[in-house]
Protein: D-alanine--D-alanine ligase
Organism: Alteromonas naphthalenivorans
Amino acid sequence: MSLFSNVKKYDAAEFGKVAVMFGGDSAERDVSLNSGNAVLAALLRENVNAIAFDPAERPLTDLISEKVDRVLIMLHGRGGEDGSMQGALQLLKIPYTGTPVLGSALAMDKIHTKQVWQSLGLPTAKYEIADKRRFEAGKCSAIMEKLGNEVMVKPAREGSSIGMARVTSAEQLENAIQDAFNYDNQVLLEQYIKGPEFTVSVIQGQALPSIRMSTPHTFYDYAAKYQDDTTEYFCPSGLSDEQEAHLAQLSTQAFDSISGSGWGRIDVMQDGDGHFYLLEANTVPGMTEKSLVPKAAKVAGLSFDELVLAILATSFDPDSRA
């Protein structure tokens, strides 16, 4: 029986006119264009009345004049995944897919996400924060020592590994922080967890099978995600049934804790002792041919087109979305 056998099936007509919103003007525009075009094609194959809508090229008021009934958000990064677009659509009284304003804003900010998880006792790596307004390069040696001398540097509010670096010295740390400041005024400095990386997709409150990623790159960076063919994906991921169940429970708890709803993805590392550490949440994950959510959905018995319809269905009754 499919994991999604209990998901309500909708007729194409029930969705009305759908705007697939993609593109935008964030640093992740190219990925968003690929995701959006793939999703739009799927909806058209399913006979949904769907149109493309790029907010970088059209005012949002065109959604009203186009008589759009709902929006499927495929914007990645700032302006589409951080709560601002969700708030704008709520003001326009147009239903949309995925997580509402609060959860979107929290998930987009890696620092605040970690603080929520930490406050709830959920496992996450040790970290420090570098603030551009008061950063002191002289503290890099102490930070390296505190975080185990191997550190991931991440702009707080970027996705797709943009601006990220893995460092092993105070000099590298200072340079990586300065580079990350080009993307954000706050930078997350996170203890590097040595071990495999996993991701768990959550659709309508259900965790899909985990995926384990393996790359020859220093870490799972932008090129490993979207450009190279050297990255390997394992689904099933090789975990025991007990570990898989634990990771699914941890991921859904982590997603719920930041007010995530509808659909999304949680990224996790596993150390040498088998312990899992939450990395970050994604409320509008990629939907390209290389993307992780479609890979997991396929193993769960859901085709790409069925997955897209399940995502679109999250635009119904947003107050009760799980």
Remarks:
- The chain is about 35% helix and 20% strand.
- The domain at 126-191 is CATH 3.30.1490.20 (Dna Ligase; domain 1).
